[in-house]
Design goal:
The structure holds 3 protein chains of 3 kinds.
Chain A lengths: L6 E7 L7 E7 L3 H12 L7 E6 L11 H5 L23
Antiparallel strand pairs in A: 1-2, 1-3
Chain B lengths: L19 H6 L4 H21 L8 H29 L5 H6 L10 H4 L5 H22 L5 H29 L3 H15 L2 H4 L4 H8 L6 H18 L22 H9 L1 H5 L6
Chain C lengths: L17 H12 L12 H26 L8 H26 L5 H9 L16 H22 L5 H29 L3 H20 L11 H6 L7 H19 L9 E3 L4 E3 L5 H11 L3 H14 L1 H20 L1
Antiparallel strand pairs in C: 1-2
Classes of the chains: A alpha+beta, B mainly alpha, C mainly alpha.
Protein name (chain B): Phenylacetate-CoA oxygenase subunit PaaI
Pfam families (chain B): PaaA_PaaC
Keywords (chain C): Oxidoreductase
C-alpha cells in the first residue's frame, strides 16, 4: 500500500474582523503545500481572506469523559452574567 | 468590452513586408492576431490541465490542477471574445475556440505539449506561468483597455500558478531518486520551447511598439533569474539551450495540437447547426 | 454525490456497556450531535465509517463519468461549468474522507478498501457516459437524487458528517440546475440533440431510481439507522419523492419517462411506477456494471501512478524537517 500524506486541520477567516473558524482538513506533505491545498479546497467560493493550517496531530483536545468536571462547574456562576442583577428601570445607562 | 485602441492598425498584407506572415494566415488585423496568441495560450493549456481531472496523485492535487485550468479557461474566454469583437465578423470566443483548425491557432508550442507525468506537467507550468506572470504585469499598461483589464485579473491568478508550480518542482527535484529523474526529464522535455515565448517576431514587435503588447525579449532576464533560482533550489540542472523551435505563433505547431483539437472541437464540428 | 446502504452490518453487539449505550441512545433520540471523541457503540462507528467512506468513494469515482466529457464540452462556458462541477466532487470526496477519518480509519485504508473491491460506491457510476446529453442527465437526475438523499443528512447525528453535508449541499445546489439547463438546450435543439436527450433519459432513469437503494422490505438495517439518525427517511420514501418531483420536470422538457406503468395515483397522492430490475441492481453492486472495471482501473492507476509524487513530497518534507532541526 502506498502512503498518504499527514492530515492538517484548516481554519478560515471569512472576512476581516472575524476569528478563524475550523472548516475541515486536508492531507499535505508539509506546511506550505498544506496551505495551498487548504486554499484550493476550502476557498473556491470566496469563503476566506486568511487561512491557518495546523498539523492534526498537534491539536490537544479535552476528553469528553471529563466533560462534567471541565464544564459543569461554570453552570452555577450565574453572577457572572449581567442579567443576574436587578436594577430599577428608571436607572439608565447601566 | 472596449473597442479598438486609438491607433491605425495595418490591415492584411498592406502593412508592408513584415506582415506577410499574418496575411498568409488570413487574419485581417494585428490586434486580432495578438489576442489570438493570448487567448490560445490560455485555452490550450487549460484544455491540457483539464485532462488531469480525476487522475491526479491525490484528491487535493486534483483540486489544485482544476483551479489552474479554470483560471485559464476564464482568461481564454475573455481574450477570444475580445478577439471576435475586434475581428468584427460575428465570431465569438466559442466560434474561435471550436471552429478553427491547426493553422489558425496561435498558441506557443509549450502549452500544447502532452501532460506526461506530474513532473512534466509541473515543468511546463513553471516555465509558462513564470512567463505569463511577467507578460501580464507588462500588459497592465496596454493601450487596449480590455487587454489591460484581463491582465489585471489574470496576473493574480498566474502568480499563484507559478508559485504552486515552483513548490512542486522544488519538492520533486529534491525528493526521491525517482522524482528527481522525472523532474529533470520534465524540464528537458519542455526547455526546447522556451525561446518561442520571448521571440519578437514582426507582430510582437509591432504590438510592443504601439503600446498594445509587451517587449517579450525584455522579460527574459527576470524570467531567467526566477526559473534558474527554482531549478537550483530543486537541486536540478538547467537544461542546455538548443536551436529555438518556433512556429506556433504562425500556426505551425507540433503534432500534438491536432489531436487536442479533434477532442475539444468534436461536438461543435459534428453538429454545426446546434447550440449548447 | 450519494450514498446507499450497500453492505450490511450486524445489529448492535451485546457486548457494549448497557448504561453507556442507553445514554448514547438517549442523546441521539434528543437530536444531540455525537462528536469524534464521544463514546459511541462500535456498531455505530462501523456503520458510519462504512456509510461515509462509501459516500466519499462515490464522489471520487463519480468524477470519472463526467470527467469523460470535460475535454469535449461544446462551449467555453460549458467547459468551465463542468470542470468546476467535477472539481466540486473532488472537494466533496475530500470533506467526506475527512469526516470518516475522525472515526479512526485513515484515508489510505479507505482508498485501499475501495481499490481492493471491499468498499462499495454508488452503482450509478458504473454506467457509461455516451453523449453530451449524459452530462445533462447526470446533473438533472443523479444530482437530483443525491440532493434528495443528502438534504436530510445535514441533520444526521454525527457532527463531522452533518457539517460536511451542509457544505456539500450548499455547493451542490448549482449542479442539478446546470444539468437541467443542458437538457433544456438539447430538448429545444436540433433533432439530433433531442434524440440525444431522450436517449440519455432512457438510459439514466432506472439507474437513478436504483440510487435510493433496495426496497424497504429488503433493507433490514433501515430501522436502526433511522434510530441512530444516520438515515432520516427510508429508501422507498425518498424514491417516491424523487419520482413525483422529476416526472413534471421531464414533461416540461417534452421528454418521456421510459416507464409504461408510470401514472398519477390520485388516491395516494403520488405516482405509481414500474418494477425496478433489482437483479440488475445487485449485479452492479457486485461489480458487474457495464464500466465497473474501467472505473476501478482508472482509480487504481491514478493512485499507483501518483505514488512516486506522494513519496517524493514526503521525502522532501522529512529531509527539510531534519535540516531545520539541525540548524
Amino acid at each position: 500500500m502506498s502512503k498518504d500524506w499527514p492530515l492538517w486541520e484548516v481554519f478560515v477567516r471569512s472576512r476581516g474582523g472575524l476569528s478563524h473558524r475550523h472548516v475541515g482538513s486536508v492531507h499535505a506533505p508539509d506546511a506550505e503545500i498544506a496551505l495551498r491545498h487548504a486554499r484550493d479546497t476550502y476557498t473556491r467560493r470566496m469563503e476566506g481572506v486568511s487561512l491557518w493550517v495546523v498539523p492534526s496531530a498537534q491539536i490537544v483536545a479535552s476528553d469528553p469523559a471529563d466533560d462534567a468536571a471541565m464544564f459543569d462547574p461554570a453552570a452555577d456562576k450565574v453572577y457572572r452574567h449581567p442579567t443576574f442583577y436587578s436594577i430599577p428601570d428608571d436607572v439608565k445607562h447601566i | 468590452m472596449a473597442s479598438l485602441p486609438p491607433i491605425d492598425l495595418p490591415r492584411g498584407a498592406t502593412g508592408a513586408g513584415a506582415f506577410d506572415a499574418l496575411a498568409e494566415g488570413g487574419e485581417n488585423n494585428v490586434l486580432f492576431g495578438f489576442l489570438l496568441r493570448l487567448g490560445d495560450d490560455s485555452l490550450i493549456l487549460g484544455q491540457r490541465l483539464s485532462e488531469w481531472t480525476g487522475h491526479a496523485p491525490s484528491v487535493e492535487v486534483d483540486l489544485s490542477l482544476a483551479n489552474i485550468a479554470l483560471d485559464l479557461v476564464g482568461q481564454a474566454t475573455h481574450f477570444l471574445n475580445h478577439a471576435g469583437e475586434v475581428e468584427g465578423k460575428g465570431r465569438d470566443g466559442d466560434a474561435l475556440a471550436f471552429r478553427r483548425d491547426v493553422l489558425d491557432f496561435r498558441n506557443c508550442w509549450l502549452v500544447e505539449q502532452p501532460n506526461g507525468d506530474f513532473a512534466q506537467t509541473m515543468a511546463r507550468q513553471l516555465l509558462f506561468s513564470g512567463w505569463q506572470k511577467l507578460l501580464f504585469q507588462a500588459l497592465l499598461g496596454s493601450r487596449d483597455a480590455t487587454v489591460a483589464a484581463v491582465a489585471e485579473k489574470a496576473v493574480k491568478e498566474v502568480t499563484y500558478h507559478e508559485e504552486l508550480a515552483a513548490e512542486w518542482v522544488i519538492r520533486l527535484g529534491d525528493g526521491t531518486e525517482e522524482s528527481r529523474r522525472r523532474m529533470q526529464d520534465g524540464l528537458e522535455w519542455m526547455w526546447r520551447f522556451v525561446p518561442e515565448l520571448f521571440d519578437m517576431d514582426p507582430l510582437a514587435a509591432f504590438v510592443a511598439e504601439h503600446g498594445l503588447g509587451a517587449d517579450l525579449a525584455a522579460l527574459r532576464p527576470a524570467w531567467d533569474r526566477r526559473v534558474r533560482s527554482v531549478i537550483e533550489q530543486a537541486t536540478l540542472r538547467v537544461p542546455a539551450d538548443q536551436r529555438p523551435i518556433l512556429g506556433g505563433r504562425r500556426g505551425h505547431h507540433s503534432e500534438h495540437l491536432g489531436h487536442l483539437l479533434c477532442t475539444m472541437q468534436f461536438l461543435p464540428r459534428t453538429y454545426p447547426d446546434a447550440t449548447w | 454525490m450519494y450514498t446507499t446502504e450497500l453492505q450490511k452490518t450486524k445489529a448492535v453487539a451485546g457486548t457494549e456497556d448497557p448504561d453507556k449505550l442507553a445514554a448514547f441512545e438517549a442523546r441521539v433520540a434528543a437530536d444531540e450531535f455525537i462528536e469524534p471523541k464521544d463514546w459511541m457503540p462500535e456498531a455505530y462507528r462501523r456503520t458510519l465509517t462504512r456509510q461515509i467512506s462509501q459516500h466519499a468513494h462515490s464522489e471520487i469515482v463519480g468524477m470519472l463519468p463526467e470527467g469523460n466529457w470535460i475535454t469535449r464540452a461544446p462551449s467555453l462556458r460549458r467547459k468551465a461549468i463542468l470542470l468546476a462541477k467535477v472539481q466540486d466532487e473532488a472537494g466533496h470526496g475530500l470533506y467526506l474522507y475527512s469526516a470518516a477519518e475522525t472515526l479512526g480509519t485513515s484515508r489510505e485504508e479507505m482508498i485501499e478498501a475501495l481499490h481492493s473491491g471491499k468498499a462499495k460506491y454508488s452503482t450509478i457510476f458504473n454506467y457509461p457516459t455516451l453523449t453530451w446529453a449524459d452530462i445533462g442527465a447526470i446533473g438533472w437526475l443523479v444530482d437530483g437524487a443525491a440532493i434528495m438523499n443528502q438534504v436530510p443528512l445535514q441533520r444526521t447525528s454525527y457532527g463531522p458528517y452533518a457539517r460536511a453535508m451542509v457544505r456539500v449541499c450548499k455547493e451542490e445546489s448549482f449542479h442539478q440546475r446546470q444539468g437541467y439547463e443542458i437538457m433544456m438546450h438539447l430538448a429545444a435543439g436540433t433533432p439530433e440533440q433531442k434524440r440525444m436527450a431522450q436517449d440519455a433519459l432512457n438510459r439514466w432513469w432506472w439507474p437513478s431510481l436504483m440510487m435510493f437503494g433496495p426496497p424497504d422490505a429488503d433493507s433490514p438495517n433501515t430501522a436502526q439507522s433511522m434510530r441512530w439518525r444516520i438515515k432520516r427517511e427510508t429508501n422507498d420514501e425518498l424514491r417516491q419523492k424523487f419520482v413525483d418531483i422529476t416526472v413534471p420536470q421531464a414533461e416540461a422538457l417534452g421528454l418521456s419517462v421510459p416507464d409504461p406503468v408510470l401514472a398519477w395515483n390520485e388516491e395516494k397522492g403520488g405516482h405509481d411506477f414500474g418494477e425496478i430490475d433489482w437483479e440488475e441492481f445487485y449485479a452492479v453492486v457486485r461489480g458487474e456494471g457495464p464500466v465497473a472495471k474501467e472505473r476501478m482501473k482508472a482509480r487504481r492507476d491514478a493512485w499507483e501512478e501518483g505514488a512516486w509524487v506522494r513519496e517524493a513530497a514526503a521525502a522532501y518534507a522529512e529531509k527539510h524537517a531534519r535540516k531545520a532541526e539541525a540548524a
